[in-house]
Predict the 3D structure of the following.
Amino acid sequence: MVNFNRFTLENGLRVLVHEDHTTPMAVVNILYDVGARDESPDQTGFAHLFEHLMFGGSVNIPVYDEPLQRVGGENNAFTSNDITNYYITLPAVNLETAFWLESDRMLNLAFSEKSLEVQRNVVSEEFKQRYLNQPYGDVWLKLRPLAYKKHPYQWATIGKNLSHIEDARIEDVKAFFRKHYNPQNAIMVVGGNVQTEEVRELAEKWFGSIPAGEKYSRSLPQEPELKEERRAVVKANVPVDAIYMVFHMPARTDKGFYECDLISDILSRGQSSRMFINLVREQKLFSEIHAYHTNSLDPGLFVIEGKPVQGVALEQAEAAIWQQLEQLKTEKVATDELEKVKNKVESTMVFGQMSLLEKAMNLAFFELLGGAEKLNEEVSRYFAVTENDILERAKSLFRKENATTMYYVADAAEQVNLADK
């Protein structure tokens, strides 16, 4: 059970406080309700670019990290297709420093051509190193637009094209900031050795005067139901062949999400999972294989990816995967097998709640989902899933017409050419 108090400032900033007096530390986590899905199709990668720009300094604090390091603090951030999340951990006695830093960049982020140029170069280099010049790095740059044709999930968080970052203009960056980085679009969670009233006073002092920003209604193009299987073959200079199969699945808050999450565990969580036992250990068809999902706020993707062992054709590997999926569609999962994966989910959540930062991030995320109290109901939602629920969800999920399959083929000719150089 994660206890918390909640209040909202007049400008719309939602604040949650989790008091934990067993630690001398505190965490300040700010979730902005903006991700790659909120970008224009011709200006992608902006949410991730902003993650970097937010550390470039504000008008009153030229170097963000210096004041934080002086008081023993650390910070970081991450961007997804749905959210952008910033966090600071520091000794609780220095809590106000975190409020000062976060409020100043929310109000007065320093926009300069120099800062933009620096961060544009950093992100461009990341695009090249992680996505273009790394084996299998461009998989999601190719797989997302194959699976999505309308919804902005069709591009990765890094962006659709490198040129979108390289061509980012200061006026476009400022407009993106004004629209999304404001109090009414943020959720702040403060946890650790803090008092709720102290947090309320600091929130009013440092954030209360920041303008709320203009309210906008998110209206994203919805992805139509897939009616026909999609396939692609990609050749690349990679060590071995790989196969990627994705299936459209329910959104994070829709009926069916928990069944899909449990199915991914049944298939590939640990060495006692079905695909590891059958496809890796016994049949020796794969060197590795994984099932997971994108955990998306809008309807997402259930993913199966694997690397067949040398000599196994991708067609044979795909047929073996489908055999595992058909079994889930025709035979109820055994009660003890389902209980095992449920228990693993519970243990993961319990261990996660031992981390102050993870509790703060979870509270912010569940507040975005509709109420932070839902975090304390999460385990019971998994345990409510029945064997029949798994069977029916597998039937709905694993259909050929709901599948997008990509063969990622090791180009032997290209490898030979490289070896000769």
Observations:
- The longest strand covers residues 300-308.
- The CA atoms of residues 28 and 190 lie 5 Å apart.
- The mean pLDDT is 93.
